[in-house]
Specification:
By secondary structure, the chain is of the alpha/beta class. The chain folds into two domains: about 130 residues, Aspartate Aminotransferase, domain 1 (Alpha-Beta Complex); about 260 residues, Type I PLP-dependent aspartate aminotransferase-like (Major domain) (Aspartate Aminotransferase, domain 2), CATH 3.40.640.10. The strands form five sheets. Strands 4-10-9-8-7-5-6 form a seven-stranded mixed sheet, sandwiched between helices. The protein starts with 15 loop residues before the first helix and ends with a helix. Bound molecules: ligand C6P. Ligand C6P binds next to helix 4.
């Protein structure tokens, strides 16, 4: 995939010890034990550069945007629009006008389901998602189906946690109006072959939305190469602040969509009889947006590009392979899912020890993982488990931390068996 201009052209081996210095929170102790943070799929930690950018915004740029003629308003507006350009570059969008700032992945999918859905989904139509989806890519579509009388169809998975692509092709019918698919499963780490899936859907004239919440943090994204119609991510999962994310939409898709919310800054003219709206993306950003959030998301993008996303992907793959091998050595531990391609996260079970007990005991040892259904209840049902324990990785994690996890899990097993 082509790299963004500011990514390192040659992927330098990532020096994890150097990188760790950028994240002050990694130095804290939990119950006198050094923190081992392996809950990155839920939210990543923030580098000093991002923390400083928040302070910089509020100490030298803060004002409302697109409204004032004064110095600070101009400064804040410039920084906000610069963040839009950075975001476009981050995913190689054709134009910054294809980037809408939103609260995060959840809001973006709701925006598309509500706005795009109101224009294109009617009674009898079908929406195709997969069995791997996070609730954020299920519930908004279900709500839309209930509103208009459409049907939600689901691509099945095999026991390894890979999508059944033969079933996928069969599920694409002349009633299918959109395919909404996660790029990377938050629960199993499955990397879906979305480029091929998009090609197949497009050959039948069906647009595709990609939930990129778990792919944007891990590798280069090129929306033009993927040719997806929508791509969505949350900044807090790629080293930026909470409460901000982006929706990428192809220009012709966004231009055809009615506004999502009404209010200030999204209008051209307002009379009591009729309101006319601005073009995308402004049309979808009603009211005062998360200005600081968008600008600082831009800083998180700068940071990732400085590290180099090829370097990040290479290092994280090495870490993931190491983690799989280390965990598999633990007696009684079974990895859940064995996808062909995996990124970011590993789910596992340890004999009959409940995942919540695993998570709680690990926490006492300073190790943060996530235990639960991971907002993917239908997937848990398909796997035949109420919950899993999940370790998820970032480029600041080390093999030593994985060893600590392994050792702690061995002790937990000894305690329970
Ligand atoms: N997954 C996890 O621990 P928000 O909350 O809007 O930033 O992201 C929602 C979301 C959507 N899609 C996928 C694939 C996700 O992984 C998430 C968030 C977190 O796995 C919190 S449940």
């Amino acid at each position: 995939m082509p790299q963004s201009k500011t990514d390192s052209i040659i992927p330098f081996p990532l020096n994890v010890e150097t990188v760790r210095h950028d994240f002050p929170i990694l130095n804290i102790n939990v119950d006198d034990k050094p923190l081992v943070y392996l809950d990155n799929a839920a939210s990543t930690q923030k580098p000093q550069m991002v923390i400083d950018a928040i302070q910089h915004y509020y100490t030298s740029q803060n004002a409302n945007i697109h409204r004032g003629v004064h110095y600070l308003s101009q400064k804040a507006t410039d920084a906000y629009e610069e963040a839009r350009r950075k975001t476009a570059r981050f995913i190689n969008a054709d134009s910054e006008d294809e980037i809408v700032f939103v609260r995060g992945t959840t809001e973006a999918i709701n925006l598309v389901a509500t706005s795009w859905g109101s224009r294109y989904i009617f009674e009898g139509d079908e929406i195709l998602i997969s069995h791997l989806e996070h609730h954020a890519n299920i519930v908004p579509w279900q709500m839309l189906c209930e509103r208009v009388g459409a049907t939600l169809k689901v691509i099945p998975i095999d026991d390894d946690g890979d999508l059944d692509l033969v079933a996928y092709e069969k599920l694409l019918t002349d009633k299918t109006r959109i395919v909404a698919i996660g790029h990377v499963s938050n629960a199993l780490g499955t990397v879906n072959p979305i480029k091929e899936m998009i090609k197949t859907a497009h050959s039948r004239g069906i647009p595709v939305l990609v939930d990129g919440a778990q792919s944007a943090p891990h590798f280069l994204i090129d929306v033009q190469d993927l040719d997806c119609d929508f791509y969505i991510a949350s900044a807090h999962k790629f080293y930026g602040p909470t409460g901000i994310g982006f929706l990428y939409g192809k220009a012709h898709q966004l231009d055809a969509m009615p506004p999502y919310q009404g209010g200030g800054d999204m209008i051209q003219t307002v009379t009591f009889e009729k309101t006319t709206y601005k073009k995308a993306p402004d049309r979808f950003e009603a009211g005062t947006p998360n200005i600081a959030g968008a600008i600082v998301m831009g800083t998180a993008i700068d940071y990732m590009e400085q590290i180099g996303r090829e370097s990040i992907a290479t290092y994280e793959q090495e870490l993931l392979t190491y983690a799989r091998e280390r965990l598999q050595k633990i007696e009684g531990l079974s990895l859940i899912g064995n996808p062909k391609e995996q990124a970011g996260a590993i789910s596992f079970a340890l004999d009959s020890v409940h995942p919540h007990d695993i998570g709680t005991i690990l926490d006492k040892k300073g190790i943060a993982i996530r235990a639960g259904h991971h907002c993917a209840q239908p997937l848990m049902k398909r796997l035949g488990v109420p919950a899993t324990a999940r370790a998820s990785f970032a480029f600041y994690n080390t093999k030593e931390e994985i060893d600590s996890l392994g050792l702690a899990l061995e002790k937990i097993r000894a305690l329970f068996i």
